[in-house]
Design goal:
It is built from 3 helices and 2 strands, in the order αααββ. Helix 2 packs antiparallel against helix 3. A two-stranded antiparallel sheet has the order 1-2. The protein is 39% helix and 5% strand. The protein is mainly alpha-helical. The protein is elongated. Strand 1 and strand 2 form a beta hairpin. The model has no long low-confidence stretch (mean pLDDT 89).
Length: 75
């Protein structure tokens, strides 16, 4: 849901992003993923689609915020 919300805020409608997302969602929501796959223009079922490859450069975080609490108040 976080990914979908972020993509909605960015108004992303790129096939390069949406096709792998549909494949990743398919084990959890197969009916919706199958409909999205057909809307993306594919004739075969999403179950035959190749699983996306891991790209580690997308996993690296550039910054991280550490919450600090002083006297029970978060700063």
């Amino acid at each position: 849901m976080i990914c979908v919300n972020e993509l909605t805020d960015l108004k992303c409608n790129k096939r390069v992003v949406l096709e792998p997302l549909a494949v990743l969602v398919s084990p959890y929501a197969p009916h919706i993923a199958e409909e999205l796959w057909q809307l993306l223009g594919h004739d075969e079922s999403i179950t035959f689609a190749k699983w996306p490859e891991l790209r580690e450069e997308f996993l690296a975080e550039e910054s991280f915020a550490y919450p600090v609490s002083i006297n029970g108040k978060q700063k």
